[in-house]
Amino acid sequence: MYLKSLEIQGFKSFADKIVLNFNSGLTSVVGPNGSGKSNIADAVRWVLGEQSAKTLRGSRMEDVIFSGTQHRKPVGFASVSLVIDNSDRTLPIDFSEVTITRRMYRSGESEYAINKTPCRLKDITELFMNTGVGREGYSIIGQGRIDEILSARSEERRQVFEEAAGITKYKARKREAERK
Ligand code: ATP
Ligand code: MG
Questions:
Q1: What ipTM describes this predicted complex?
Q2: Nearest-CA residue for atom 9 of ligand 1
């Protein structure tokens, strides 16, 4: 499984639709300060369901919608689609390509979709559970995260290992069953 491409429209500094294609190897994003490098990482977190505006370096969730510049009017919605190559069927879904989409309007409601079929955030979270991908997964290591893991309490650190060992999903299901 690898990240194949990312389509961003109306999200943070990306007013127009842009498509970034990645290969299975290593990709670095370079550019001057303020050119939008971190916004790309934010887009990945956001489409995977990030709910914290602060984690996305804003104060309200609406801050992710392109807010205009001197020469350009604000836009009405933000949309990000992330395409994953799933030829190896790492994701438990029978498609070799999986597209996850999130769209949000200024009213605040987010819509999610898997392969263009509307779904709940929960479906996306479950799809990525045990794979290390996802907003809590270890495949996105933000600045300061390594320090955080090293200095975390042992129970918190255990969660990282549980995700890597592939038992997060079963624990979540157990919790849900116990609640019913
Ligand atoms: P650095 O090298 O300093 O880390 P960077 O390339 O990571 O820079 P980003 O933080 O990704 O830069 O981008 C910051 C830019 O995004 C700023 O110019 C900011 O005005 C713009 N930006 C953020 N949110 C929005 C928004 N909602 N609408 C328009 N522009 C936005
Ligand atoms: Mg940055």
A1: 0.98
A2: 36
75 lines ligand 1 (CB under 6 A): no
Find out whether the beta carbon of 33 lies less than 6 Å from any atom of ligand 1.
yes
| pLDDT value of position 60 | 96
Longest dimension (CA), the chain: 55
Which residues have C-beta within 8 Å of that of residue 172, sequence separation ≥ 6? 126, 129
- Give the domains, in start order, of the chain with CATH numbers: 2-120 (3.40.50.300)
Instruction: Kindly list the strands in the beta sheet with 2-9, ordered across the sheet, starting from the edge strand earlier in the chain.
Output: 18-21, 2-9, 77-85, 97-105, 110-114, 117-119
pLDDT, one tens digit per residue, over 46-87 is 999 999 999 999 999 999 999 999 999 999 999 999 999 999
Binding positions are: 32-39
Among all bound ligands, the one having the nearest atom to the CA of 104 is: 1
Residue with tokens 């194949």: 4
Binding site, annotated residues for ATP: 32-39
Overall average pLDDT of the 126-154 stretch: 88
pTM of the prediction? Answer: 0.92
Q: Which residue out of 29, 38, 80 has the highest number of ligand 1 atoms within 8 Å of its CB and is therefore the one to mutate?
A: 38
- For residue 142, name the pLDDT band (cuts at 50, 70, 90): confident
